[in-house]
Write a structure and sequence with these properties.
- The complex is a heterotetramer, with two copies of chain A (about 270 residues) and two copies of chain B (about 300 residues).
- In chain A, strand 8, helix 3 and strand 9 form a beta-alpha-beta unit.
- In chain A, helix 5 (about 175-185) runs parallel beside helix 6.
- Chain A is about 20% helix and about 35% strand.
- By secondary structure, chain A is α/β, with parallel strands linked by helices.
- Chain B has about 300 residues and is α/β, with parallel strands linked by helices.
- An eight-stranded parallel β-sheet of chain B has the order 3-16-15-10-9-8-7-4. In chain B, strands 5-6-14-11 form a four-stranded antiparallel β-sheet, with no helix packed on it. Chain B has a two-stranded antiparallel sheet with strand order 1-2.
- The longest helix of chain B is centred in the C-terminal third of the chain and has 15 residues, at about 280-295.
- The chains are: A alpha/beta (about 270), B alpha/beta (about 300).
- Chains in contact: A-B, A-D, B-C, C-D.
- Chains B and C meet through strand 11, strand 13, strand 14, helix 5 and helix 6 of B and strand 11, strand 13, strand 14, helix 5 and helix 6 of C.
- Bound molecules: flavin-adenine dinucleotide (FAD) (2 copies), flavin mononucleotide (2 copies) and FE2/S2 (inorganic) cluster (2 copies).
- One FE2/S2 (inorganic) cluster binds near residues 222, 223, 229, 231 and 253 of chain A.
Chain lengths: ~270, ~300, ~300, ~270
C-alpha cells in the first residue's frame, strides 16, 4: 500500500562532496519497502519548485522504522532537500515501484553501481546477503572522493571492486571495463545495476552477450510518481511482436511499471 | 452550531456533491488515486483523454518543470475506448461520483464514433457526460487545431450533439486570439458546459545540448504559472455565454479555486496539483467549505461570477 | 590566453556591442538605472512606451505579483513625445548605446505622427530605431488590438514605413492564435526586426473583497512564468520570417538568454528582471560571454537559431 | 546616491507576535539615510517570490554603520525575510524616497503611528529630538501585544500616548479619536503619520480642518522601487489646475516622488 505521509528527518550527513545521506522516520514505509523502490519527495514547503523529486530508498531499517535516502545535489530540488533541517517533516509518497527481483535459484549476484546509482544497491546487497547469496559489487566513480558505499558494501560481507575514471583510486577506467574483466573469472547468475544511462546500456550489452539476466533501474522525469500522468515512460519491447525484423515497443511507466526493468527488454535508442 | 454551507452544484444536468473535479490527464483512471483519497468525496472525475484506438503517445522526456509550472507532451497515450469501457469503467462504477469521459479525435468521424459508442455504453455503464477535447497541444493532427477556429469548433460539437444525449462539455484552448467567439460557437452548437483552460503551448531548451528539453519539442504549460491567464479567460467566457463553466489552470489550493468561482466558474478542476499533492482535491473541498463558513456564504452557487467590477 | 568571443550583433542596421537590450517599460528612460550600471555597456536601450501626448495611465494598484511572474497594468503612463525629446533624449545622447523609441498610438494617425516627428528629431538627437508597440494589453483603444490581426498589423507598419527611414521593430503580442501570420504581415509591410513577446493577458482576484486585484481588472503577465510560452513563439517566428528577432519574456539570467538565442533570437531584451535586479543586464552580458568561452563559440551569431530538432 | 548592496544580517528579534526587528550592516546607506526613506529587499535567494519588498528604514546608526528594519509578517516575502539567518547577506537597494520634511521653524512635532506604521517614525522622532523639537507620539494598535515602540519613543524623551482598539491598554478606541483629543490641548506645528490608509485619511482630514501641515507616508505595490516602472503610483493633486471645481491630479510614484506626501495633496478616493 502506497502512502502519503509526513516523515520526520532524523539525521542528515554529507557523505561525499554534495552527496547527502538523510534518514527519515517512516515505519509503515520501512516495513513494506523492497530494494529498488523509491519515494517521491516534496522538497520545498511551497509550490517552488513545483514537482516532487524521486529518490531511491537507499536502505530501510524495519526495526527502527527508518528509511534512508542518499542523493547528490544537482539542481533546485535536491539543493533545497539538502538544506532541510533535522527535526523537520518531509512530505513523501512511497514506497513506489516494482523493485529488484532476486531469483531464488540465483547464487552469484553481481551488483554494479555508477556514481550516485549505488543508492538503491545497498538495500539490494543487504537483501542478497540475507538470502545467502554470494555478492560481488563493482562501484564506478569519476574520482576517489565520489566513491560512495565502499565500506557499507564491505561491512555486509560483499566483495567490492572499484573503478575511477581518473584512476585516482583502484582500477582506472570505466566500471563497464572492470565488469568485463570480472565476469571472465566470476560469471554471475544475475546482474543488477543503477547509474547513468550510458553505463546501463553498456552493461545491458555485456549481459546480453553472455545471456545473463540483468536488471536495470531506470530514471525518467516524473510528474505524479503514482502511474497517473504517463509522464515518465520508457520504451519497452513487446515480445510477441518482434516480427518482420522490426522491434515493437510500448511506453511503460518508470514509476509504477519500473523503475527496474529487464535490461533485455529496454530499448536504448533515445 | 454552524450550519454547513450548501456545496452542491449542477452543470449541464450533471449533479455534483461539491464543485471540485479532476482535470483530464492528471488523475489517470481514478484508481491510481484511491490509496490517497476517497473517490466518493469528489464532485466529479474526468478521466485521461481517450481516443478510439489505443494511442502510444510521444517519446520521452514528456515532462519538464518550468518556473511555477510544467510542460507536458504526453501525446494522449491511452488505452483506447474498448479497454476503457471493459477494464476501467467497471471499477469506477462502484463509486457514486459522476464519471466524465474526455474524448479526442484526429478526424471528425473519430469524435462522432467515440461519442456514439459512449452513448450506447452509458446504458449500462454510468457515464455522466463527455468532455470534448479540442484543445490538446500535443498531438499532430486534430487536437488543438479544432479548438482554435470557431467554425471547426461548431462543427465538432454540433456533429457530436447529433449522436448523443449525454451532457456535453467543450474544453477550450487558451491559445487563441479571442476565446469568446470559440465559446460562443460551442454554445450555439449545443454544448451544455464550457471547460477551460487546456494547457498553453510552450517549450524549453537545454543550452548544453542545444536541443529541446521535450522530445516533442513543444508541450503544454500548466500549473500556477498559467493561473492569471486562465482566470482572465474564465471571466471573459463568463461574460459571453449562458451555459455553466468549469474553470481550471493552476489551481493549487482553495484560495485559487475560489478566485475561479468568483470569476464565473461554477465548478473547478484540479490538474497539475494532483501530481504535486494527491490529496489536493480533498484539501480544496475542505478549504472551500471553510471559506464559505468564514464568509457566511450559505450556498456555493452565490459565489459564481460574483466579481465586483 | 583565451580569446574573447565576438559579441557584436546587428539587427535592422542597428549595431550593438552585445545582444542584450532593455525591454520597454521596465527600464524607465534609462537614467533611473545609472546608479547601478554603466549604460554604455548595454547592447541597446528601449525606453518606456511613448505616445503623442502625455498619458496619465491607469489607477493603482497597477502591479500584482503572481507565481513566478507579475501582472502590470501601467496603462502607458508617459511624458509624451515632446518631453521625451526635450528632456530625456539629451541625457541619453551622452552614451554610445543605441536608443530605441517604443511608440504607441490610439489611431493610425497617431502612430504616423509619432514616427514622422521622431524621424525629424533623429537628425540631431541620436535615435537608432523605433519599436512599434501593437501589443499593449493595458490600454482601451489601440495597443493590442492592432497586433492581433494581420491586416491591421500590415497597415500600421506599412504606413509608418512610409514616413521614416529609421529601422523599424514591430513588437508582437503573444495573445494570438497564430503568431506566424502576424509576423509575416509585419515583415511584408517593411519591418526590419520583429520583437516578441509583449505581456500575456491575465488577471488576479482578491477573494476577500471579491474585486480584481488590479484596478484595471486585467493586466499583462511577465516574468519567468511566461518564459516557456515566449520561447515557443520566438521559435515559431524564427521559422517563418527572414528578418532578425529580438526575443524576450521571462529572461532572468544568462541561461534564459541563451535559450532564446538558440531558439532564434539575435538579440534578447530584459524586462521584469530589471525590476528584481537592476544589474541584471550586465550580469547577463557577462554570463553570455562566459558561456561562449566555456562552449568554445567564437561568435555569438553562431548561436542564433541553432536549435537541434 | 542609491545603492544596490549585499548587507550582512547582524541581529534578528521577534519584538511582538509576528513582528521582527532586523539590523543590517550597511554603512553607506546608514550614512545617507533620512527618516521616512526605505529599502527595497530581495527576500528570497531565488526568483520565488519574484519581486522585492519595500520596508522603511526603522532606525539608522551612522556610527556603527547599521540600519534597522521593523516589519510584520503578512505574506510570502515577509515570511521568508523573518526566516533569514543572522550572518546571511541580504540584497537591498536604498536608501530610497524623499523622507519626512521637518520644517526648521516647527517647534511642536506630533507623530502618529498606526500598527506597524510606527516603523519609520522612530527615526523621525530621533531626528526631531536631535533638532530640539518638542515631540509627542500617539501609537495606535489593535491590542496590547501589538503596541510597538512605546519604550523606544519614551527613551528618546518623547511624550507617548497609546490607544488600543479593544481597550486592552491605555486609551480605548482609534488613534484618530485620541489625536482629536490631544490636539485640543497640544496643537502641533506639524503632524507626521504612517499606518493603514483609512487612518491616514482621517488624520489628513483632522489636520486639514485645523490647517496644520501633515505629512503621510504612503504604501503602494511596487515593482522596481527606483522610479522606472511606474507601478507604484498614487493620485496627487495638481494645484494650479483646481479650476472648475474639479480637482485635477497626476499619478506620482510612491517610491521616488514619495513615500512621504503632504496630506493635503493626496487624493484619497481609491
Ligand atoms: C526512480 C528514481 C530514483 C532515483 N534515485 C536517486 C537517488 O537515490 N539518488 C539521487 O541522487 N538521485 C536519484 N534519482 C535522480 C533524482 O531524481 C534527480 O537527481 C533529481 O530529481 C534532481 O532534481 P533537482 O531539482 O535537484 O534537479 P533539476 O535538474 O533542477 O530538476 C529539474 C527536473 O528534472 C528532474 N530530473 C533531474 N534529473 C533527473 C534524473 N536523473 N532522473 C529523473 N528526473 C530528473 C527533476 O525531478 C525535476 O523535475 C532518481 C531518479 C529516479 C527516476
Ligand atoms: C514605502 C513602504 C514602506 C514600508 N515599510 C514597512 C515597514 O517598515 N514595515 C512593514 O511591516 N511593512 C512595511 N511596508 C509594507 C510592506 O512592504 C508589505 O507588508 C510587504 O511588501 C508584504 O510582502 P509579503 O510578501 O509578506 O506579502 P504579500 O501579500 O504576499 O505580498 C504580495 C505583494 O503585495 C505587495 N504588498 C503587500 N502588502 C503591501 C503593502 N502594504 N504595501 C505595499 N505593497 C504591499 C508585496 O510587496 C508583494 O509584491 C512598507 C510599504 C511601503 C510601500
Ligand atoms: C500531464 C498532463 C496530461 C494532460 N492530459 C490531458 C488530456 O488527456 N486531455 C485534456 O483535455 N487535457 C489534458 N491535460 C490538461 C489538463 O486537463 C488541464 O486542462 C491543464 O493542465 C490546466 O490545469 P492545471 O494547471 O490545473 O493542470 C493534461 C495536463 C497535464 C499536466
Ligand atoms: C511594468 C511593465 C511595463 C511595461 N511597459 C511596456 C511598454 O510601455 N511598451 C511595451 O511595448 N512593452 C511594455 N512592457 C512589456 C515588456 O517590454 C516585455 O515585453 C514583457 O514584460 C515581457 O518580458 P519580461 O518577462 O522580461 O518582462 C512592460 C512590462 C512591464 C513589466
Ligand atoms: S510519473 Fe506520472 S505516471 Fe509515472
Ligand atoms: S516601483 Fe517602479 S516606479 Fe515605483
Amino acid at each position: 500500500m502506497i502512502l502519503n505521509i509526513n516523515a520526520r528527518i532524523l539525521s542528515k550527513k554529507e557523505v561525499a562532496p554534495d552527496v547527502f545521506l538523510i534518514s527519515l522516520l517512516a515505519p509503515l514505509i520501512a516495513q513494506q519497502a523492497i530494494p529498488g523502490q523509491f519515494i517521491h519527495i516534496k522538497c520545498s514547503k511551497d509550490n517552488y519548485p513545483l514537482l516532487r523529486r524521486p529518490l531511491s530508498i537507499h536502505r530501510m531499517d524495519k526495526d527502527k522504522g527508518e528509511i534512508f535516502i542518499l542523493f547528490q545535489v544537482v539542481g533546485e530540488g535536491t539543493k533545497l532537500l539538502a538544506q532541510r533541517a533535522v527535526g523537520d517533516d518531509l512530505n513523501i509518497i512511497g514506497p513506489i515501484g516494482n523493485g529488484f527481483n532476486i531469483y531464488p535459484k540465483s547464487q552469484k549476484i553481481m551488483i554494479v553501481g555508477g556514481g550516485i546509482g549505488v543508492a538503491p544497491l545497498i538495500a539490494l546487497a543487504e537483501k542478497s546477503v540475507a538470502e545467502d547469496k554470494e555478492v560481488r559489487v563493482l562501484i564506478g566513480a569519476s574520482k576517489r572522493e565520489m566513491v560512495i558505499g565502499e565500506e557499507l558494501f564491505k561491512s555486509l560481507g560483499a566483495n567490492v571492486d572499484i573503478s575511477t575514471e581518473d584512476g585516482s583510486y583502484k582500477y582506472k577506467g570505466l566500471v563497464t571495463d572492470l565488469l568485463k574483466e570480472v565476469i571472465q573469472v566470476w560469471p554471475p547468475d544475475q546482474i543488477f545495476t543503477c547509474g547513468p544511462k550510458a553505463i546501463l546500456r553498456k552493461i545491458a550489452d555485456i549481459a546480453s552477450s553472455i545471456s545473463i539476466n540483468c536488471q536495470v533501474s531506470l530514471e525518467e522525469r516524473m510528474g505524479c510518481g503514482i502511474g497517473a500522468c504517463l509522464g515518465c515512460v520508457c520504451k519497452i519491447k513487446i515480445k510477441e511482436k518482434e516480427k518482420n525484423n522490426k522491434v515493437e515497443y510500448n511506453y511503460k511507466r518508470v514509476c509504477v511499471d519500473g523503475p527496474v526493468f529487464k535490461a533485455s527488454e529496454v530499448i536504448w535508442d533515445d | 452550531m454552524i450550519k454547513k454551507p450548501q456545496l452542491e452544484v449542477e452543470v449541464g444536468r450533471i449533479r455534483m456533491k461539491n464543485p471540485v473535479m479532476t482535470a483530464s490527464g492528471t488523475f489517470g483512471y481514478g484508481e491510481e488515486f484511491s490509496p490517497f483519497i476517497d473517490l466518493d468525496k469528489l464532485g466529479a472525475m474526468v478521466l485521461k483523454g481517450i481516443t478510439l484506438k489505443p494511442k502510444m503517445g510521444n517519446p520521452p522526456p514528456r515532462i519538464i518543470e518550468t518556473p511555477s509550472g510544467m510542460l507536458n507532451a504526453i501525446g494522449l497515450q491511452n488505452v483506447g475506448l474498448e479497454v476503457l469501457v471493459e477494464e476501467k469503467l467497471p471499477y469506477l462504477n462502484k463509486f457514486t461520483t459522476p464519471i466524465i469521459i474526455n474524448i479526442s479525435g484526429d478526424t471528425i468521424e473519430e469524435y462522432i464514433e467515440l461519442a456514439r459508442r459512449l452513448d450506447e455504453v452509458s446504458q449500462d455503464k454510468k457515464i455522466a457526460g463527455l468532455e470534448i477535447n479540442i484543445s490538446c497541444p500535443n498531438v499532430k493532427q486534430g487536437g488543438m487545431a479544432w479548438g482554435t477556429d470557431p467554425q471547426s469548433t461548431y462543427q465538432v460539437v454540433n456533429e457530436i450533439r447529433k449522436v448523443t444525449s449525454l451532457p456535453l462539455i467543450t474544453k477550450l484552448s487558451p491559445n487563441v486570439t479571442d476565446i469568446r467567439v470559440i465559446a460562443q460557437a460551442a454554445e450555439e452548437a449545443g454544448a451544455d458546459v464550457i471547460s477551460l483552460i487546456n494547457t498553453v503551448v510552450g517549450m524549453a531548451i537545454d543550452i548544453n545540448s542545444r536541443q529541446p528539453k521535450l522530445a516533442n519539442i513543444k508541450g503544454g504549460l500548466s500549473g500556477p504559472a498559467v493561473k492569471p491567464v486562465a482566470l482572465w479567460l474564465v471571466w471573459q467566457v463568463f461574460q459571453t455565454v449562458n451555459i455553466p463553466i468549469i474553470g481550471m489552470g493552476g489551481i493549487m489550493d482553495a484560495q485559487d479555486a475560489i478566485e475561479f468561482m468568483i470569476a464565473g466558474a461554477r465548478v473547478i478542476s484540479i490538474g497539475t496539483a494532483n501530481l504535486v499533492n494527491p490529496q489536493a482535491t480533498i484539501d480544496i473541498i475542505e478549504g472551500i467549505e471553510k471559506y464559505l463558513i468564514d464568509n457566511k456564504v450559505k450556498d456555493i452557487n452565490e459565489l459564481v461570477g460574483s466579481l465586483k467590477v
